[in-house]
Input
Amino acid sequence: MSDDGNSVTPDGAEDGTVLQKPVDRRGALGMIAAGVATGVAAASACRPLNAATPEERELKVLEWQEFTQKHYRRMTDAERAETIRRIERLAKIRHDEDVTIATTDAQPGVVFGYAFNKSKCKGYRNCIEACINENNLDRASDTQYIRIFEMEDGLVNLEEADATYQHEVPAEGHFYLGTQCFQCADPPCVPVCPVGATWQEPDGIVVIDYNWCVGCRVCMAACPYWARRFNWAQPEVPLDEVNPNQHYLGNRARKKGCVEKCTFCIHRTRKGQLPACVEACPTGARVFGNLLDPDSEIRWVLANKNIFRLKEELATEPRFWYFSD
Amino acid sequence: MWTRLVNGVVCLAVVGIASGCVDEQHPERETAALAADTGLTDIDPAVAAFNAQRQPGELPVVQAAPVDRWAGPGARPFEVAVRTSKQEAGHPRRFGSITLETALRIRPVSQYPCTSCHFGRTVVMTDDRIDDAHQNIQPVHPEETGAVCSTCHLADNVERLALTQGAPVTLTESYRLCAQCHFQQAEAWAGGAHGKRLDGWQGRRVVMGCGDCHDPHSPAIQQRIPFRAPELERARTTHE
Output
């Protein structure tokens, strides 16, 4: 029985069951939808007999179930497992992709922090290249989580900065500043979401349930760092370039009309690996680690280097610091 | 000299047998195994012993010498990846469907091993005739600092590095030589602010050595064409 007391029975029965199975409102809707889908498939199958293959019928059912799935944080472990199986199966049916989707939770005692050495970055953009491929970013609209701004020495002015430079780097008299989602400790993008589709995880990563997102883009307006990206169309990744190592809250396939953003490579970092941008950086300008570990490199940087954060006066407390040699 | 002879002879003989094996009775086998893996000809037996337990695919490493002010975060010991003379010295890593070289210096060491010429007394290292054989090597530092070959290299063994204090070290511990002058960089490197950590934020801390990014004979960062620019034209025009 559901815990919110909103259980309904489509057939009006008092015992709250459909086919002797406890069900809540959402579950009932899903079951009805699945039934309708099967019916639709069956009806269409009637015209030329058996025109809908079993796979097409399965696809319709799965799509309806996906449409009616719960919020990620309200799923039980069993429901999560079922959701993952469904997404993996959908990827198989739709694109013949064998993907593995993790639901790895945050490690206890870990809050991620990031530091960027503005003296070391030379503007090669290898981080962007790695990010695009690691996170299955949309190739058609050229979605990129990271921006590298070329700036004149002595100025930190993002208005005057150029993120579209295309010449040999490092350019004389310039330095480079990278931005991405800063995973703020007080993220302004989270409370504005009207449906609660974005939230902060215990390890500090701000994540999005792509299936729950309604695409209103209010979070994008709230973010002072322009960190979020919107899918105006169905994202496209060439089949042979899909990274099959995925996370539900990270680099799995997004849908048209949902918002996405950098998750510090949640599928890697929760396993102890470095984010792709950190690992790909050829100059070692990026430092990543656990802020709660006093013996971590990130803590050493924060304790021993001159650091600053972007738009610190907004008090969003980004967990992303800049430092220089 | 002992190590070099051992390497020369044993390297070919026991590569197949010794790689991956731990044999405390035969340190020369560990040395030979590491030599075969890395392509280095001069390996400190202590370094070879430290790498004896290495699993296939793991990087050969050197335990960073505990030098004053290099303790690093929490005074934890850390390890320095050995730069090999092979092509994979660029530390290629896979991101989705692509593989990128993640170190700045991706070309193998040129004209290595040094012993192919500087063996025995056939070619003696001199400080004033560098252009004869090493046209590609420019004086590392401006001439006013007075750096010559023997400032870093041991005069009678080019593959050993001459520290100002203590015994000469092999090329795998080049960070000790660099740190003698670049002590600020060395401190930041040990702390984690300079250089780069490999293979994860958790667990063993393995960092790149100085030579992974900086060509010792041309340490300045080179210019190159970056990865393609993002298409931000729409955003730009809406703003103007």
Observations:
- The first strand of chain A starts at residue 17 and ends at 18.
- Chain A has a mean pLDDT of 88.
